[in-house]
C-alpha cells in the first residue's frame, strides 16, 4: 500500500511537467518482474525538458530588457548595421544605466587601447544636428564622457574631412601606464567610417518565458 501511494505521488508530480503515458497504469506494473525498471522509464520519459532559448545560438538573452544581443568585430558603421540586419537586428540602442553596463561587460577588456577605434560602436548617428538611434527608438539616455560630444573634425589623405557623427563606448584603458578612469563605459562621438574593435547587434527575442 505504501509503495502504491509513493508511485501515485511520484507520477502525479511528473504529470505536472508532462503527461504520463495513459496506456500504462499503476496496477499493470509488475513490481516483482521488472516493474521498478518500467517505473523509472516512466519518470525519465516525463522529466521536464528545458524550453528552447528565446534567442538564436550565439546570442545573449536579457529578460530585463526583453532583447537578444550579439557581439560582432572589426566593422565600421555601415558594415555593422548591414551585418545586424542580415540577422533581423539593428546596431544596439541603449536606454538605461543597467543596459549600458550589460553591453560594457560583453566587450570590456583590460588591454590598453591605442586607437580611437578600439571602442564599442553603438547604433546612433547624428542627423541634421540631432542624435538618433538607427532602430527608431527614442534617444532618451546619453552617458557622454566628460567633454563629449565634441564633434572633432578629422582630415586625412583619403578624405578631406570626416566628422564625428557616430557614437562609441570606451571599453578599455587609454594607455599602458594610465590608471582606470571614470570614462570607462561612457560615450564618445566618433567617425562612422573607422573600423571599430567591436559592435553589438540587438533584436527582439522569439518569445519570453512567463514566470508565475
TrEMBL record:
PANTHER family assigned to the protein according to its UniProt record, in alphabetical order: MANNOSE, PHOSPHOLIPASE, LECTIN RECEPTOR RELATED
Keyword presence, Signal: yes
Which range is the signal sequence, renumbered to this chain? 1-17
* Top-level taxonomy: Eukaryota, Metazoa, Ecdysozoa, Nematoda, Chromadorea
PROSITE patterns recorded:
C_TYPE_LECTIN_2 (PS50041)
Keyword set includes Signal: yes
Return any one Pfam family short name.
Lectin_C
Q: Residues in domain C-type lectin?
A: 68-193
> What is the protein name given in its UniProt record?
C-type lectin domain-containing protein
Task: Enumerate the UniProt keywords alphabetically.
Answer: Signal
Amino acid at each position: 500500500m505504501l509503495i502504491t501511494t509513493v508511485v501515485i505521488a511520484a507520477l502525479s508530480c511528473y504529470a505536472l511537467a508532462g503527461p504520463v503515458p495513459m496506456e500504462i497504469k499503476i496496477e499493470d506494473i509488475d513490481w516483482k518482474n521488472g516493474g521498478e525498471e518500467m517505473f523509472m522509464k516512466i519518470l525519465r520519459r516525463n522529466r521536464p525538458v528545458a524550453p528552447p532559448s528565446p534567442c538564436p545560438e550565439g546570442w545573449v538573452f536579457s529578460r530585463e530588457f526583453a532583447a537578444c544581443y550579439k557581439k560582432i568585430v572589426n566593422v565600421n558603421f555601415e558594415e555593422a548595421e548591414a551585418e545586424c540586419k542580415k540577422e533581423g537586428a539593428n546596431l544596439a540602442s541603449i536606454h538605461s544605466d543597467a543596459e549600458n553596463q550589460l553591453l560594457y561587460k560583453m566587450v570590456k577588456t583590460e588591454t590598453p587601447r591605442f586607437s580611437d577605434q578600439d571602442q564599442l560602436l553603438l547604433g546612433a548617428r547624428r542627423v541634421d544636428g540631432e542624435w538618433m538611434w538607427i532602430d527608431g527608438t527614442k534617444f532618451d539616455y546619453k552617458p557622454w564622457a566628460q567633454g563629449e560630444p565634441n564633434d572633432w573634425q578629422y582630415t586625412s589623405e583619403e578624405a578631406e574631412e570626416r566628422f564625428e557623427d557616430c557614437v562609441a563606448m570606451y571599453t578599455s584603458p587609454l594607455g599602458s601606464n594610465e590608471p582606470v578612469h571614470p570614462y570607462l563605459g561612457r560615450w564618445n562621438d566618433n567617425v562612422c567610417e573607422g573600423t571599430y574593435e567591436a559592435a553589438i547587434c540587438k533584436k527582439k527575442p522569439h518569445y519570453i518565458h512567463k514566470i508565475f
